[in-house]
Specification:
mainly alpha, about 70% helix, about 0% strand, two-stranded antiparallel sheet, Growth Hormone, Chain: A
Length: about 550
């Protein structure tokens, strides 16, 4: 009985379509909670400072403490999720985040608030890599692009709702009760996410390691110290300029960490991060793009919220409203980008980068001319809109394209063997016209590896594991060799060489499994012309 492409692509133990989208709903609910908690703080910082009598350094730590612990535990949590089960790490992260939100809402002084924010960063660092890992594991091809598009929509919507919600709560409840409620609203969302995770996440939630649990603690500690040394000068450097020397220590520690990871692998152990992933150009470029974007653009929302409140006398609600159109456009552009990420690829990211640069320059111009020419600051609605569009076109497409060539086993932080990485990157080796081995690029590399999302010249068995859906090495696209001029991507140009090589090595008088395309086309054209009354042969 013939097997459909969707059935051929389905792997043992794979979730049904309904179960996948229920899973995505739970993941996005938790991400929404953690992201709102970040964006909502931007407009309540002045209220926190006035009610708790916090210093400027204290308020910086409200933001930086969360980012510090988030960055420190992120990689280790991804690796732990690969070894112990992403489900149990996700539930643990949501639980930690929820409890820390209660502590933050009840904090009596800046020290307790910052301790709670440190713990919230740990919880968010636990759950974030599991979200990415489970999307990479359970979604393929076009569905994966849509999943990342919805994730980007949630990012944009949370950025939009957070400041407005914070301003409403402060206007309604007052400065003190208002900023406390911005943390306490995470509690019902967190409890609901835990309950739904237990019900809907793939079972088992906890995976007992087959052998000895190897989390590479030395690598984790060295990386944590490197991140701490990198961030601390930017928070406390104004009060203590000597801390800027820690940047050199951060670079030294990073070099030590890379050396340790290589040595750890040479000893036959499993390092914290598989450094071989950085040999994949798409992964390396995507990581650099994400790092530069979040380092240079995401801070705009904090700066604008503080600027309009302290310099222009805006209320917290007005500060939230000035960023609202940009955030809504970010949600919309993320949805659009999710639909076209696999077809337009890096063009979306390039367009988003240009839009971000224009938006940043326009925002700087608004601030400058407001000071010199008394320009209305509400022109920021227009300039920030370009940054919002850029956010949607950069974050979710870059995430999908960066992980497209990464095996599922590495999507959360776990290592894969060099052979597996090479197989998933290049496919099987074939001899070219030039006598060397030429590795044909499978179409799964372009479309995320879903057999339901192939070009018209590809067969259902064409490398559907390349995008991370299975556990076996991908097969080369069989359809590209039949018509080397019409292929689904430039990636298949190697298959055209293979087609010519196969034709030369085939015994004379035989034909390939798919027949001779030129002969088929000639017969089809002859029949059409004959029906039209213009036979080729009289």
């Amino acid at each position: 009985m013939p097997v459909s492409k969707s059935e051929a692509a389905k792997e043992p133990g794979e979730l049904s379509a309904g179960a996948r989208w229920r899973l995505l709903g739970v993941l996005l609910a938790a991400m929404f909670m953690s992201l709102v908690s970040v964006s909502i703080v931007n407009v309540v910082l002045p209220s926190i400072g006035s009610t708790l009598h916090a210093s400027e350094a204290d308020m910086q730590w409200v933001l930086a403490g969360y980012a510090l612990t988030f960055g420190v535990v992120l990689v280790a949590a991804g690796r732990a999720g690969d070894l112990l089960g992403r489900g149990v790490m996700f539930v643990a992260g949501v639980a930690i985040f929820t409890v820390a939100s209660i502590l933050a809402g009840l904090a009596a002084d800046p020290m307790l608030l910052n301790i709670a924010r440190f713990i919230m960063g740990i919880g968010s660092g636990f759950l974030n890599p599991q979200v990415m890992g489970m999307i990479q594991q359970h979604f393929r091809g076009a569905a994966r692009g849509r999943a990342y598009g919805l994730l980007g929509t949630v990012v944009g919507f949370s950025v939009a709702v957070g400041p407005v919600l914070g301003g409403l709560l402060i206007n309604w409840l007052g400065a003190d009760a208002g900023w406390r409620s911005t943390f306490l609203i995470n509690v019902p969302v967190g409890i609901l996410a835990i309950v739904l995770a237990v019900l809907w996440l793939p079972k088992p939630l906890f995976t007992k390691p087959a052998g000895k649990l190897d989390l590479d603690p030395v690598g984790g500690i060295v990386l944590a110290l490197s991140i701490f040394a990198l961030l601390l000068p930017f928070v406390q450097g104004r009060e203590n300029p000597a801390l800027w020397w820690l940047l050199a220590a951060a670079l030294i520690l990073l070099a030590v960490w890379i050396w340790w990871e290589k040595r750890y692998k040479e000893r036959g152990r499993e390092p914290m991060v598989e450094l071989a992933l950085f040999r994949i150009r798409g992964f390396t470029n995507g990581t650099l793009i994400a790092g530069l974007y979040f380092m240079g653009v995401s801070s705009v929302w904090v700066l604008v919220a503080i600027y309009v409140q302290e310099s222009q006398g805006f209320s917290a609600l007005e500060a939230g409203l000035i960023c609202l159109p940009a955030a809504l456009l970010s949600a919309f552009s993320s949805h659009v980008a999710g639909r076209y990420a696999t077809t337009l690829g890096r063009k979306l990211v390039i367009g988003g980068t240009l839009s971000a640069l224009f938006g940043l320059l326009a925002t700087i111009a608004v601030v400058y001319f407001e000071d010199r020419l008394n320009l209305n600051v509400w022109w920021m609605l227009l300039s920030l809109a370009f940054i919002g569009i850029a956010q949607g076109f950069i974050i979710s497409p870059n995430q999908a394209l960066t992980l497209m060539e990464v095996p599922v086993a590495n999507s959360g932080g776990r290592r894969g063997t060099d052979a597996d990485l090479a197989a998933r990157r290049h496919g099987s080796g074939h001899r070219s016209d030039h006598g060397g081995v030429l590795r044909a690029q499978p179409c799964g590399r372009v479309f995320g590896g879903d057999a339901d999302f192939l070009c018209g010249h590809c067969t259902p068995g064409c490398s559907h594991a390349a995008g991370g859906s299975g556990g076996h090495a991908p097969r080369t696209c069989k359809g590209a060799g039949r018509n080397p001029r019409r292929v689904c991507s430039r990636r298949h140009r190697h298959a055209a060489h293979r087609h010519r090589s196969d034709r030369r090595s085939r015994p004379q008088g035989t034909k390939p499994a798919g027949g001779f395309p030129a002969l088929k086309s000639w017969r089809a054209a002859s029949k059409l012309l004959e029906k039209a009354g213009w036979p080729l042969v009289a």
